[in-house]
Design a protein that fits this description.
The protein has 174 residues and is an alpha+beta fold. The protein contains six helices and four strands; from the N terminus they run αααααββαββ. It has a four-stranded antiparallel beta sheet, covered by helices on one side. A hairpin with a 2-residue loop joins β3 and β4. The longest helix has 20 residues, at 63-82. It is globular, with a radius of gyration of 16 Å. The N and C termini lie far apart (36 Å).
Length: 174
Amino acid sequence: MKGSLFLSVRSLVLERFGQTVWAQALERAGIPVNSMFMAIGDVDDNLFEKVVRAVSEITGADMPEMWDAVADHWVGNYTQQAYPFHYQGVRSAKEFLLHMDHVHTVVTKATAKAKPPRFEYSQPDAQTLTIRYVSGRGLTDYFSALVAAVGRHFNENIRIDRPREDTIRLVFDS
């Protein structure tokens, strides 16, 4: 996974909980406290989840709450600064989400060793969108949290359920 996700978690933890919690989370995850991370650098997929779990344990937040915080920070803060062009001209959560597989295709071509998740879409009707998360990372809880964060970012009420571990169904209010 690219370091940008890791840097976003770092930013969130430092803003909300401070340097001490960040250092403790790194130690619990087995990462040297003085480690440097670059946005385009590679970070082991398992370390991302280990650090998020460590922050959850240290702060007492449950994992769904932690994934929501990480996702809200990624969508509402980090990507707004690092990748604002992905939001330009986008008018809805559905439009944004339908564009994400294309974004990941471009990232894969433009960035060495990038292996972002891919998405398969189906739209059984105008209000429903089903997205299959295709990745060996197993970060389906984070994926669900990201989708909910996109809805919050666009101030849309979206009902989300998971008919399968790798699939979410969104129902948009009309």
